[in-house]
Amino acid sequence: MKFVDINSYYTDPKYLSIYRLLYCFFLMFFIGLPSFTWLGSNLDPFFSPPTWSLSNLFPGFPSKHFFLILSLINLLAFVSMFLGITKNIAAIVFTVSSIIAHNFWYSFGKIDHLLLWYTLPVFLSYAGWSTHFTIFKNSDQAPLDKRAKDRIAFIMSLLALFIAFTMFTSGIQKLMGGWWRWDREAVRFQLINNYFTMQRHEFFAAYFLHLKSHIVWKFMDYSALILEIGFLFAVFKRSYFQFFLLFGFIFHLSVLLMFNISFYANVICYFAFLNFASISYFYKRSIFSRFGLAYKMRLPVLITGSILCVFWLFCLWYRQSVFRLPSVIDLERFNDTTFQDPSPFAATSFFFTCAVMICLALAAEILKSAKKF
What we know:
The protein is mainly α. The chain has one domain (6-371). Helices cover 60% and strands 1% of the residues. It is built from 14 helices and two strands. The protein has helices at 13-31, 64-83, 88-105, 115-125, 146-176, 186-197, 205-209, 214-230, 238-259, 264-270, 276-284, 293-296, 298-318, 344-371; strands at residues 33-34, 324-325. The two termini are 31 Å apart. 34% of the residues are buried.
């Protein structure tokens, strides 16, 4: 008996290639790319890496030239991945350079939730996300045999398991921390801590701060526990997993509105499991397909993205004190050396765009299902 429906995770490489552009678009337009040029040996007094960090292999921070080269390699790998030039190699270099750099970034004691988005390219590069919509015309678009399809389905199921496990570990920590206890209001405690200690007052934080209903707060506690722990048990079938991804998006949107924390890394990865086939079905029956806009927009999109990447190269060389290479929306923060996370406007725009895309995908799925009856 098969406990996991691996075949349900199969995704056509054409749709994975669309997701590759979407992944890069999210980073370039809303999020930006981390810069590691601000790190260097002058920060050695603050060097305190976690026990299992790769940075423990070093006595302190390497020189600034090391991080400049590492940032350059990371950026060039991202550009190659976006253009689909080197396929698997670019994704591997991007992930490895990101892991090495973030190990040093986290050597100050604080660890962020960015693991998913910079490890995802390795998974999808072997699933064929660089076979279509590249800078070259002669991409590998040969029909796939059953063995190749099984391999893609297996890789996608592994990615789903990886996402589910990260959520599961977060849920277990909450469970062990007593979130299940009826006399505790864990979400409310986190809100108060974020509001007064971290000074995060944007969006609806002030409204929720005055919310007194114990039942509502416990509903939030239990919802978070069920969602994060339940992710691992939803991996058995793609449709179940997509259901949890949908509510995961709602969960992360709620975290943004309440705590002013944007878990964009998770949301970006969720879109790898979007039903692109349903969207394609909807597109083929729209007026846009008559003009072949999807294919004609390939080169303009790739060229526009490349221009931004050239600007990022300029930033790496002339603005080595910044934490993040600015996205299109946050270009005005180019000179802000404290710029670590996307601005509230960029985060809101990102989640709004994601919400619109999810609604379009659901509408396409409904229309496709209605045609069968």
